[in-house]
Amino acid sequence: MLRKLVQSRCLSNGVRSSLHSLTRVSSTLSFSSSTGTTNSFEEELDHKNHTSPLVEPSSTISIDRSGLHNPPAHTHEPSSGSELVKHLKGIIKFRGGPISIAEYMEEVLTNPKAGFYINSDVFGSEGDFVTSPEVSQMFGELVGVWTVCLWEQMGRPDKVNIVELGPGRGTLMADLLRGTSKVANFTKSLHAHMVECSPALRDLQYKTLKCAPEDVRSDSGDERVMSQFSNVPISWHSTLEQVPSGLPTIIIGHEFYDALPVHQFQKTTRGWCEKMVDVADDSRFHFVLSPHPTPANLYVMKRLKWAVKEEIAKLEHIEVCPKGMELTHEIAKRVGSDGGGALIIDYGLNGVVSDSLQAIRKHKFVDILDNPGTADLSAYVDFASIRHSAEETSENVSIYGPISQSQFLGSLGINFRVEALLENCTDEQAESLRTGYWRLVGDGEAPFWEGPEDQTPIGMGTRYLAMAIVNKHQGVPVPFQ
Ligand code: SAH
C-alpha cells in the first residue's frame, strides 16, 4: 500500500546504490517519533484592526494552518515588560518613526539577547513547531542519498565542505551522516559547517552530532571538533560568508529561507507603500503604511521585473526578501566557482508571494505583533526569486525545480526505505514510521491514523518544495531529471 502512495520514478543507478548502502545500515538507525499534528484549513486574517487609521489598511492574508491545533488567539497585547518589547519600542522611539516589518522580524527571531531562536529549543511537540527532520529519520537519510549522488556527479572529490544553513537541533545532519556512513570515501571527504546564529541551538547540535574535541590536532594545528558519526569534523559559523571557500561545496537549507526577514508592501493610489510597525498612543504595536518610498522599494521594483504582467495585475500586496536574494547570490557564487550544489527545501510558491508572514506559538497561529520573541515568525519562500537571483549571479550554475517534497522523496526511494525499516521494528515503531512517512509525502489527512481525530497528521508532500542550484558542469542532479 505504501508503494502506491508516492509515484516513485525508476531509481537511477546512483540513487539505487546510495539507497542500498543506506538500507544495509537500517538496523543501526533510530526511530524518531512523529509529533504535533492536526487539521488543515485556510483562514482569512484581517489586518485592519492593527493598521493605523491614517493610512489605507492592508486587507487580508491567507495562511497555511496545517500542523496546527487551534484557531489563532487574537490577544495582541504586548507584554510591555519583556526585554525585546522594550528594545523594539526603544528603536522606534530613537528613530522617531516606525520600523520595517523586516527589521521587526529580524529582531524578534535573532536579537542576540532575546530573539526567538537564541535561547531555547523551539522544536518538537514540546516546542512551537515540528519540522521534517524531526518527523522522521527518513528525511535526513534521503537528503543524504541526494548528497552522495551529487558527490558522485562532482567526480568524487576527496575534500568537500558540506554546509547546513540553520540546522535547528542538528537532526538532519545526524541522520545524513549516520545514513551515509557506509559510503566511506564520501564521509571521509567531508568537513561539515553549521551556519547557526543561536548559541543554545549550537549546543544542542553539538550533542545531537555526538561531538568531541579531536584527540590529535589537525595538520594546521587547530583543535577540531569531531562528530562520532563517521568521524566528520564540524565547525560553526554565523553566516555562509564565514564558511571557508575554495573547496567543492554541498549546501543544504531546510526551513532556513522562511526565517529570513521579509518586507511587506501594499498597493495604494500613491504606488507601493511599505507596511511598517509603530507604537500607538495606547502603547501597543500596530501597523502603519509608509507615506514615502523606502529603500526596500528598490527590491519591489527588482522583483516585479521578474514577474509577468498578469501576475502583477492581480497583486494588491507583495512580500520581498532581500536577505534571501543576498543568500542566493552567495550560494550561486560559491557553487559556480568552487563546484558542488545546494538543496533548498521549504514551504512557498514558485512565484510572487503577496502576504504570507505568520506567527506560530506552541503549534497555534497567533498575531504577529503579540508578545514578540515568544512565537516563530516565518514567511512563504519565493522560489522564482531564488531562481532569478541565482541566474543573475553566475553563468556557471543551473537551477532545477521547484518540485514537490513528495516527488523529491519519492524519486529518492522513500517507499523502499520505509519498507526496509518496517521489516525490522516493533508495532509502535511501525506506527511511528507510517505516520512519519505520511507526513513527509502525503497530501491531506493520513488514511491510516488511529489516534484522536483532531490530531490527524496532515501531509507536507505538496506544500513543501525542493529546488537545486548546482554547478552547471556536473549535469542534472537527481531527482530533477
Ligand atoms: N533546519 C532545521 C531548523 C529550521 S528553523 C529543521 O528543519 O529542523 C531555522 C533555523 O535557522 C534555526 O536553527 C535558527 O536558529 C536558524 N536561523 C534563523 N535565522 C538565522 C540567521 N539569520 N542566521 C543563522 N541562523 C539562523
TrEMBL record:
One of its GO terms (cellular component) is mitochondrion. Its EC number is 2.1.1.320. One of its GO terms (biological process) is mitochondrial respiratory chain complex I assembly. The keyword NAD does not apply. Pfam families: Methyltransf_28 (PF02636). Residues 45-82 are annotated as: Disordered. It is an enzyme of class 2 (transferase). Keywords: Methyltransferase, Mitochondrion, Transferase, Transit peptide. InterPro entries: NDUFAF7 (IPR003788), NDUFAF7_sf (IPR038375), SAM-dependent_MTases_sf (IPR029063). It is found in: Mitochondrion. One of its GO terms (molecular function) is protein-arginine omega-N symmetric methyltransferase activity. It catalyses: L-arginyl-[protein] + 2 S-adenosyl-L-methionine = N(omega),N(omega)'-dimethyl-L-arginyl-[protein] + 2 S-adenosyl-L-homocysteine + 2 H(+). Its main location: mitochondrion. SUPFAM superfamilies: S-adenosyl-L-methionine-dependent methyltransferases (SSF53335). Belongs to the NDUFAF7 family. Arginine methyltransferase involved in the assembly or stability of mitochondrial NADH:ubiquinone oxidoreductase complex (complex I). Acts by mediating symmetric dimethylation of 'Arg-118' of NDUFS2 after it assembles into the complex I, stabilizing the early intermediate complex. This is Protein arginine methyltransferase NDUFAF7.
